[in-house]
Design brief:
This protein is an alpha+beta fold. Helix content is 27%, strand content 29%. The protein has helices at residues 22-42, 69-77, 79-88, 119-128, 131-139, 150-155, and strands spanning 5-14, 50-54, 58-64, 99-110, 116-117, 144-149, 169-176, 179-186, 190-191, 194-195, 207-208, 221-223, 226-228. A hairpin with a 5-residue loop joins strand 4 (99-110) and strand 5. The protein starts with a strand and ends in a 14-residue tail after the last strand.
């Protein structure tokens, strides 16, 4: 296994992917690649500065720590929704693609089976699969919802870099197998199927039910700190991903 290295962790997951037929799934995957590629280009991420894992209904990016995280956050709040809107405006409502997005960071290693290993990665996946994130996307009209880890919020978002408004992020607590974990949801969080009222006594009261250990489907899972599955680590040219 390689030594763990510090990386920015960016995850995208397609809502209701399993309910689509094969043709629709293939089409959505092409759109997903287009959106992810446009996001990385706009954020100034060179191809050599990121490693991709394709999980069918979702994409995982490990991004070099030298890449600007403020630029990534701003891009996820602007370019990514714009790209999704551009794609979805020509589609029927039933074919619309909506995304859950998580931005986190931490140490990740690659094992002898080309699997990604690390508790920080597991933590990011827990956030991606959290019910509170799923509910937020379901209850909104937006094409995507963004959640950042507490580390990204404290280190970047709360300082209000250009184009990022800290007040637009709301603290949530997600119950996971490892215990409660704090994250920050962009936009108004939901509790009991309704938006949390502005000025609520404690945003920490917004919690999630325990997350499962599987990662978006039955082909891959997190077990013992390891991402299992047939992940692909070759990074094709951005023009060759369709």
């Amino acid at each position: 296994m390689t030594d763990p290295v510090y990386r920015t962790i960016l995850l995208f997951d397609i809502e209701r992917f399993g309910s689509r037929d094969d043709v629709e799934q293939a089409y959505l995957r092409r759109i997903l690649y287009d959106v992810v590629d446009a996001t990385l280009v706009t954020a100034g991420v060179e191809e050599t500065a990121a490693l991709r894992a394709d999980r069918g209904d979702s994409v995982m990016e490990l991004i070099d720590a030298q890449v600007s995280v403020p630029a990534l956050v701003k891009t996820l709040l602007t370019e990514t929704p714009s790209q999704l809107h551009s794609k979805n405006r020509l589609l029927a409502a039933s074919a619309r693609m909506r995304l859950r997005i998580v931005l986190s960071s931490g140490y990740v290693a690659v094992d002898e089976l080309n699997g990604w290993v690390g508790s920080d990665l597991n933590h990011a996946v827990r956030l991606l699969n959290a019910d509170i994130l799923r509910t937020a996307l379901k209850r909104r009209d937006d094409d995507c919802v963004l959640c950042v880890s507490n580390g990204v919020y404290e280190g970047v978002v709360r300082h209000g870099p250009l184009g990022v408004r800290p007040d637009d992020f709301h603290r949530v607590t997600v119950d996971t197998k490892e215990g409660p974990t704090v994250a920050w949801l962009h936009g108004v969080p939901f509790r009991d199927g309704a938006p949390q009222a502005p000025g609520a006594p404690s945003q920490d009261a917004v919690t999630d039910t325990p997350s499962h250990t599987s990662i978006a489907g039955d082909q891959y899972g997190v077990t013992g700190g390891t991402v299992n599955g047939d992940l692909r680590f070759d990074r094709p040219g951005r023009g060759d991903r369709r």
